[in-house]
Amino acid sequence: MKRSVIDAWVGAFVAAGFGALLFLALKVGNLATFAPEDSYRVVARFGNIGGLKVRAPVKSAGVVVGRVAEIRFDNESYEAIVTLHIGSRYQFPRDTSAKIFTSGLLGEQYIGLEAGADGVMLKDGDRLRLTQSAVVLENLIGQFLYNRAAEGKEEKDAKK
Amino acid sequence: MAEQAFAVALRAVLERLGRAVTARILRLGFAARFFGYLLLHSGVAMRRFWLTIREIYFAGVLSLIIILVSGLFVGMVLGLQGYETLQRYGSSEALGILVALSLVRELGPVVAGLLFASRAGSAITAEIGLMKATEQIAAMEMMAVDPIARVVAPRFWAGVISMPLLAALFSATGIFGGYLVGVQLIGVDEGAFWSQMQAAVDFREDVLNGVIKSVVFGIAVSWIAVFEGYDAAPTAEGVSGATTRTVVTSSLAILALDFVLTAFMFTGGNAR
Predict the structure, then answer these.
(1) ipTM (interface predicted TM)
(2) The model's pTM
(3) Residue-range domain boundaries for chain B
């Protein structure tokens, strides 16, 4: 086969391969949607983070504004320290509160931000003071059963 | 007498076992030295890049059809089976995540690697083995041409270059196949299919790790293929045996390496 034909085929092959990589990066992956460089860090402490994972979304009003960057355990206060990366486009007041929600009944967990009313905006390295832990389903069910049992006992006592 | 006969038989068995083990270790050492020599003498393959381009044509371009067709069908089957299971839990919109993650992380590199080993690896082994059997390699040495630099290195580098591109094409056509079945045929919402996929697939964690996997598989398969060809007994039987060994060994190597790489790459997010 002639050299130019082979050259052309190999060129087309390499171009198609890089095209596929580009497709994977931009259309399939999240490279286009969120650039981690253009963000600031905020820290929040939680009593219980439930099943929250690194890279979980941070949402405000349902819109993804950032990602969970790091989860650590504080040995002194026995709390979880969660570092959030929030896109620089999104500015929040200093008294913004963070809650851990679950998307759907069994879905993944994410952090929801609710903007406060303070005039001063959050800066890089600030700490969110108002936080609410994840709801642990087992605790909820346990509490419910306990309440029911207590009610049943009261009814029995009343009948006597 | 009986005891003596038993002792002789036992010794024969032990000797055979020992010989088999040392032969394997010797071969492994030879393969490692061959690899080092190959890397040291790759200069020609890079300087006269035309040699490598020609081999990319044979190893990569001619493997395209089998890679693209299998990728499409693997993706379509993933779409069908994934939908069957996901719709039971009312989360059929997560089909995009399932198809994309399983292709990009695992199936793309692994299945493309297996196909590449059987389509291109066996051809490389057979070609080098036949060149040896017909004494072309000996003739090159007579003319003071280094056969490893002239014949082996271009084929090795062609395999290393082709494999990641083939794996990326496999994943991309697979996702397209999953899209065809999931969105066009079954009717999963198109926006949810793509947006959930984009939210779940991370470029560095998933796509880049998949590319690293395919590069490692490319090195392993190409190395095994050129080594088996160069090491083949110079007979028709020897070449056929070497070709079989290439496919079997590189398939096993891909699966074993995939486990090791996965264990390193995809540990749970909380573990760190």
Answers:
(1) 0.79
(2) 0.75
(3) 63-261
